[in-house]
Design brief:
31% strand; single chain; 2 domains; D-amino Acid Aminotransferase, Chain A, domain 1
Length: 341
């Protein structure tokens, strides 16, 4: 019998928020710094899918092996793939897994093995879909599933959850491993394609942006700044700011990478502005790119449809689809900015 949920099923996502929501109807979970993943198992077939629907299966053979060892042979799990390193989690080591060589992936899987931290059960081992049940009901069944199966392999772990606001605040203040806290409404079914029932509260304000173009340095043919874009409600890519926090060591390789994408449409909505009294001819010139690269950036303020001041480049997000980079990420942050004063 086929699984009731197809591999095109989109995971539930979260809206950004500036503070933890309060009330009896909220469940709090750690926000792990990893790759969001839906794990599908049907007999001897296992598929790991990213949030954007890309296959992750070949990159994490140790997770696949752990799932295949389970007595249960038919289920769908929602969770996060992470790589622990000392007392923290290493996103850089996750990025290293996205490699074309199988031998390299196998080597890394032994040197820095990944964990699959599970926080939801969408299909039971009997093949029954749970997506219409409330989070409280699904959590109860997930905990029973974990007690029965997860002790066999430490690669699979149950991600903790609490309704205690004090514990959630403690998690938020932690300096290691966690990227923040996730809050979910306990009385709602699984909200695929809908962000209303789930919030993410990060310690730093970040956004995933499409790199729609770049500018060269003033006197060198090396990348000087990345031009950042977000998709608007009309599906157009608007220019929203830039990031120039690129080390001199990284510039040659990054320039080579960007040049391969030159010639794309760049920004199809609002484009980078023209000259000003402070700019030179070279500083107003920019190269348009195919919208394929997604960068996670840190910012202080977002007003008037753009980041004010420069932003800090944090990392590349190959697991993120460019079309997912919308203004929705920053709208709530903009409305809540005064709370930070």
């Amino acid at each position: 019998m086929a699984l009731p949920i197809s591999k095109k099923y989109r995971p539930m996502e979260a809206l950004p928020a500036s503070e933890l929501p309060t009330g009896d109807n909220w469940q709090y979970e750690p926000k792990w710094d990893g790759f969001r993943c839906l794990a599908f198992q049907n007999g001897k077939n296992v598929s790991l899918l990213s949030k954007s629907g890309k296959l992750l299966t070949r990159y994490f053979p140790e997770v696949v092996a752990a799932l295949l060892k389970l007595p249960a042979k038919k289920f769908v799990l929602d969770g996060e793939i992470v790589i622990p390193l000392q007392d923290s989690l290493s996103f850089d080591h996750l990025l290293m897994r996205i490699h074309p060589a199988t031998s390299r992936i196998l080597k890394l899987s032994k040197e820095t093995p990944a964990l699959f931290l599970v926080f939801d059960l969408l299909v039971t081992e009997s093949g029954k879909s749970l997506v219409m049940l409330t989070l409280s009901e699904r959590r109860e069944q997930l905990e029973a599933f974990a007690r029965k199966h997860f002790k066999r392999d430490k690669t699979l772990r149950l991600s903790p959850a609490t309704t205690d606001l004090r514990m959630a605040r403690k998690w938020f203040r932690m300096n290691v491993a966690l990227d923040g806290v996730i809050a979910k409404q306990r009385d709602l079914p699984y909200q695929t394609g809908n962000r209303d029932g789930m919030q993410k509260i990060k310690r730093q304000r970040t956004a995933d942006c499409v790199v729609g173009g770049f500018r060269y340095l003033e006197k060198k043919r090396l990348v000087g700044s990345l031009l950042l874009g977000l998709y608007n409600d009309q599906g157009e890519l608007d220019h929203v700011g830039f990031s120039s926090s690129i080390s001199n060591k990284e510039r040659p390789a990054l320039t080579k990478k960007l040049r391969k994408l030159i010639g794309g449409p760049g920004f199809t909505g609002k484009a980078p502005g023209g000259p000003s009294r402070w700019s030179t001819k070279r500083s107003t010139e920019w190269e348009s790119l195919r919208p394929q690269l997604v960068a996670e950036i840190q910012f202080d303020h977002f007003t008037g449809g753009r980041f004010r001041h420069g932003t800090k480049f944090l990392r590349w997000r190959p697991d993120k689809a460019p079309r997912e980079c919308t203004f929705e990420q920053v709208e709530r942050e903009s409305r809540s900015a005064l709370r930070l004063l």
